[in-house]
Specification:
The structure holds two protein chains of two kinds. Chain A is built from four helices and five strands, in the order E-H-E-H-E-H-E-H-E. Chain A is of the alpha/beta class. Chain B has four helices and five strands. The longest helix of chain B is centred in the N-terminal third of the chain and has 14 residues. Chain B is globular. The chains are: A alpha/beta, B alpha/beta. The interface between A and B is medium-sized, with 19 and 22 residues.
């Protein structure tokens, strides 16, 4: 089942991929990074781990910019407005799982 | 008929940015024409307290009230609310002091997606 994983905690607190890998295959997994979870896409080792677990990585642009980063700093995924996140949740996936 | 998103949030208004994320997600979904319902549980009930004055931070109470006026149905857990010493009437006018059984379960059963914003 196509699944949108919602992550809000930093990689120092939680590795979201442990649960993601158990719930959905990479091809069915999208991940949405809010708040300190954006660091998952900024650090190379975390970004590579996330890229292996999800085919789509969406980073909330507001939350990224609030921390002084931008799209060019991302090691994986893309910075998107909340409207694109809504599309992912409502149209491209069939359920959400908050990690 | 437009699809419906329910957002369940559990973090307090000044704990982190969780309530703001819930607010922005709800606003974006409304802007795209979806129906949105929100339910506050645990510390999340503090987000609908009337008269918040956070000075240098976003005012979640005002954001939620604006969402309510835009058609976002909002309810919170009465048990959680009473447990924190709040009384009916202290909430913003767009929020209903409700319950898991009467509101959240109904919201979820009638929604296309449930998004939990919690830590």
């Amino acid at each position: 089942m196509k699944t949108a994983f919602v992550v809000i905690r930093s990689p120092q607190e939680l590795d979201p991929t442990h649960l993601m890998r158990r719930v959905a295959d990479r091809t069915d997994a999208s991940v949405i990074l809010f708040e300190d979870a954006v660091y998952n896409a900024l650090r190379k080792e975390h970004a590579e781990r996330l890229d292996k677990a999800a085919h789509e990585i969406l980073v909330a642009a507001d939350d990224l910019e609030a921390r002084g980063f931008s799209q060019k700093d991302l090691k994986a995924g893309k910075a998107v407005p909340y409207e694109d996140i809504v599309d992912c949740i409502m149209e491209r996936t069939e359920r959400t799982v908050t990690v | 008929m437009a699809k419906t998103m329910t957002i369940l949030w559990r973090s307090g208004s000044m704990m982190a940015m969780d309530a703001n994320v819930a607010s922005k997600l709800a606003a974006a979904a409304r802007a795209k024409g979806y129906n949105v319902r929100m339910f506050g549980y645990g510390e999340g009930v503090t987000a609908v307290k009337k008269g918040q004055n956070p000075k240098r931070f976003p005012n979640v109470g005002n954001e939620f009230e604006a969402l309510g006026k835009d058609g976002v149905e909002q309810a919170i857990c009465e048990t959680c609310y009473a447990a924190r010493g709040f009384e009916r009437g202290e909430e913003i006018p767009t929020a209903k002091v409700g319950s898991l059984t009467n509101n959240l379960f109904k919201f979820v059963s009638e929604s296309d997606r449930l998004v939990t914003i919690a830590r």
